[in-house]
């Protein structure tokens, strides 16, 4: 036993080195172990695939390496814009047999590697919201199984891929309230002067013709000046030889012409309008014939006469008396086919058409619009090669008439009890008609080119309008509705893309 030697243990330094090496090996091994990929509770995932059932939305926390995604029995019906952009490597997207009714604009944006898409079995509503999808399907390299429309009825069971883009009428328009002018008015006339845009309003309630100026920065109408006018019914601006004049027609106290003096920056009275000739003015129309400026005043009294005035050197002078003692209500100047005409409407007889005689330099009575026994307002417009008249009536239907070469024929009757004002106007190729009433809201109609008629488009809450006025102001297309009983409202015409 004495010869046996005691076995010696490892040196302390060697044990420390061994322990350190073991720890390093564990750390290296831990780094090399694959991480479990993220996966939502409703999905089964591998590193590059995901199969999801009953998901309430497109899963967000999926592995970024996923190349195949399947959604089954999804608990949502709309796929929103860019819904899969967080999966840029996606190659296979299986969305078939779900309840998707809407696929948002550019839902598949960012999927540059997408090879296969099966949207079959979904109840797609093929309205303007899928127009982008029809365009995308026509240009994508992705293989897409046939998709069928569930609605609307005219597209039911049609392949989305086969829908013609021309079938999607996705642009609509609207008139939205833009500005409220907190006062009544009975006429509105926009005008340009020294490169600025203005608006003249007749406001008998505040005894003035109010001049507003368009603020291009704030994009609003702002107060600018006022012309005293205790019983104003119409304020007509005219720019003649770079000089600004405003004809102020009043029911009482006489009518006048004012001139804007740029040196004193104020309006000064230029001349009176003969009170024996114009007793009860109701409308003003200004126009130019063969280089000469004229304005006409419709007189609604029994004793007065609708009269024509001509500019000469330094003032307006009486030129012709038209249509005496007929209670005229409105005037419309029409310059078509090189034959200037003036149409005079009356509450006591059919509208009368006057044609300008260049030899006599006067208007000569041409005939009556016999289809309408009386009219409160008369306006005209052209559509294609045809000329039309619009006539509003206080009792009975308003009328749309078309000129047939030798006479007018009725095209359409519009219900309009209590109407004193109507106005056709054109905005960006779209033709509208505003028709007011003292007993109901204002109706906006849109011209249907195919049917050659106006169809009801929109209702505006305007009380007792006395005029309508279209005013382009920069990129804002405005419709003004002066009201006798309430505030003067300014509406903006907006274009809405339903496919966006």
UniProtKB/TrEMBL annotation:
Gene3D superfamilies: Ribonuclease Inhibitor. Residues 1-30 form the signal peptide. It comes from the Eukaryota. PROSITE patterns: EAR. Pfam families: EPTP, LRR_8. The keyword Zinc does not apply. Residues 122-171 form the LRRCT domain. The keyword tRNA processing does not apply. InterPro entries: Cys-rich_flank_reg_C, EAR, EPTP, Leu-rich_rpt, LGI_related, LRR_dom_sf, Quinoprot_gluc/sorb_DH_b-prop. EAR repeats lie at residues 174-216, 220-262, 266-313, 315-358, 362-405, 407-449, 453-495. Keywords: Glycoprotein, Leucine-rich repeat, Repeat, Signal. This is Leucine rich repeat LGI family member 3. The lineage of its organism: Eukaryota, Metazoa, Chordata, Craniata, Vertebrata. The gene is LGI3.
